[in-house]
Amino acid sequence: MRYKKTIPMARPSLGREEIKNVEKALKTHWLGMGSFVYDFEKKIQKYIGVKYAIAVNTGTTAIHLALAGIGIVPGDEIIVPSLTFVGSVQPIINLGAKPVFCEVEPDTLNIDFDDAEKRITKRTRAIIVVHYGGTACNMDRAMHMAENRKIRIVEDAAHAFGSYYKGRKIGSFGDIACFSFDPIKNLTCGEGGCVVTNKARIAEALRRKRLLGISKDTWMRYKNKRSWFYEVVTEGYRYHMSNISASIGLAQFDKLEGFIEKKKRIVREYDNFFKKIRGVALLRRNYSETAPFNYTIRIGRNRNKFIDYATKKGITVGINYIPNHIQPFFRKFSTKLPVTERIWGEIVSLPLYYDMKESEIQRVKKTVKDFMTDTAK
Ligand SMILES: Cc1ncc(COP(=O)(O)O)c(C=O)c1O
C-alpha cells in the first residue's frame, strides 16, 4: 500500500513574513514587552472596533486576568459550560472561585442559557460564554440575563477572533472578551492571548495586573525603554506578551481574512457533503458571521470506533471537548448534565486548517463517508 502522509487536525500557516518579523524583533534586542506588543494591540483595537486591547501570553491567562480584573474573589460562583477547554475553567479555580457547570445546546455546542439561568444564585458573579467553534452565543440573551443582576458576562472568544454577532465583531460590544492566539487559532502568536474591553476602568486594572501590579512602567516599555522608577500598586501576574510573540501576530494579521475565507470554504464543502450522510448531524452555523475555528460533527455512539478508523487511515481527529465536570480534579464541582454527557460521546472534530490541500479535504470526506456507510450496514 502506498504511504499516505498523516493529515493533522489543525496546523498554523507560517511563511516568510513571520520569519522576517521575528528577525526584526530579535534585531531590536528588546525581547520582552515593547513596541511590537503596542503595535499588535493597536491592530487588534482597530480590527475588532474596541477601545482597549491588552495583549497577554496565552488565552488562559487572558481569562484569568479578565476574571481578576472584574473583581472575582474566593467564594464567588462563575457559571461556565462544562463542554469547553479546561483553559476556560482553571482560571476560576486559580482565583478561589467556584465553577458552576452548565449545559450546552446540542446543535451549536454553545451555552444553554435556559439551563444557565436556573443555576444563578446570590453568589453568581459572572457567566463565561464560550463562542464554540467561532459561532456566536446569543449575546442579547446573555446581556439581558446579566442586566439588573450584578452579573458580568465574560466572553471566552478563544475560537472567535474575526467572528461577528448581528453584524458586529465579537469583542466589540460586551463588557469583556478574551481571545487566544495559540498555535492552532485563526491567528497565532506562537502562544498568546488578549483581553478586549470598552471600559476604561477595567482596561486600567488589567494593564496593571498583567505586569506584576506595576503601574508606571508600561509606557516606557512600549517604547523599548526601561525606567528605573516603578511602583507596585496591586496584586499582579507576569502575563504580558513578548515582542517576539507580537511580531508573529503582526505578520499573521495581514493574512487573517484569507485564512478565514479559506476555512469558511472548507466548512461549507464539508457541510454540503456530510449533510447527505445518514448518521451525521451537523452543527447549526451562520456562514456569513462565523470565522470557523474547528469543524465538529456528531456521529452517534460509534464515535470511538470512528476515531480508531480515522487514525488508521492517517487522519488526526479530536474531541472538543471532554466535559470538565467529569474530570477528576473538578469532580467536587460535578453536577448532573445529561445533555452534555450524551453529546460528548457523539462529537468528533475533523481536520480544518488554512493550508489543507484539496486532496486532503477529499480524503477526510471519503473517510467519514466510508465509515458511516460501513457502520450503517
Ligand atoms: C474555548 C477555549 N478557551 C480558552 C482557551 C485557552 O487558550 P490558550 O490555549 O491560548 O491558553 C482555549 C484554547 O484552545 C479554548 O479553546
Entry summary:
This protein is an alpha/beta fold. It has helices spanning 16-28, 35-48, 59-69, 90-94, 113-118, 139-146, 200-210, 218-222, 243-253, 256-274, 303-312, 338-344, 358-376; strands at residues 52-56, 77-81, 98-102, 124-130, 152-156, 164-165, 168-169, 176-180, 193-197, 281-282, 295-298, 347-350. 37% of the residues lie in helices and 14% in strands.
Description:
The protein has 377 residues and is α/β, with parallel strands linked by helices. It folds into two domains: 16-253, Type I PLP-dependent aspartate aminotransferase-like (Major domain) (Aspartate Aminotransferase, domain 2), CATH 3.40.640.10; 256-376, Aspartate Aminotransferase, domain 1. The protein has helices at residues 16-28, 35-48, 59-69, 90-94, 113-118, 139-146, 200-210, 218-222, 243-253, 256-274, 303-312, 338-344, 358-376; strands at 52-56, 77-81, 98-102, 124-130, 152-156, 164-165, 168-169, 176-180, 193-197, 281-282, 295-298, 347-350. The strands form three sheets. A seven-stranded mixed β-sheet has the order 1-9-8-5-4-2-3, sandwiched between helices. The longest helix is centred in the last third of the chain and has 19 residues, at 256-274. The model has no long low-confidence stretch (mean pLDDT 95).
What is the overall silhouette? Answer: globular
Q: Strand tally, please?
A: 12
Give the number of domains.
Answer: 2
Ligand inventory reads:
pyridoxal-5'-phosphate
- CATH architectural group of the largest domain: 3-Layer(aba) Sandwich
Strands of the widest sheet, in order across it, are: 1-9-8-5-4-2-3
Segments where pLDDT lies below 50 for 5+ residues?
none
CATH superfamily membership of the largest domain: Type I PLP-dependent aspartate aminotransferase-like (Major domain)
